[in-house]
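The instructor's notes for this session suggest beginning with a concrete chain rather than abstract definitions. Hand out the sequence below and ask the class to guess, before any prediction is shown, which regions might be ordered.
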Amino acid sequence: MPANAQQSKANYTVKSVETVIDGADVKARIFTLAPGDVIPWHYHSETTDHYFVLSGKLTIDRRTPDESRTLAVGERYQITAANAHMLSNRGSTDCQFLLLQGVGRYDWNTAEG
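After discussion, reveal the predicted structure:
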């Protein structure tokens, strides 16, 4: 684990999270972010995140490579294990996305911004 990170439970609040599948090595959840909602910098040791935007716009900031991308409805994005990332809704309407995570043990590791 990088020196500037610590393993913990996710510590953020968003408008809603609906669990679709919660298995030992795969998770599927639908997130709704209100305007201004942020999921802070973090990474997962084993799981890859697959994002599918259902409504609104989702901004994903990541490291390695350092980039920021705003996704619209119908777009998808993948972040492999051990890559720090932050999600936000910088728009004026709710953003909803499907997050598929796996395959592997799920964890949440904070990463400084």
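Then share the key points. The chain has one domain: 12-104. The longest strand covers residues 26-33.
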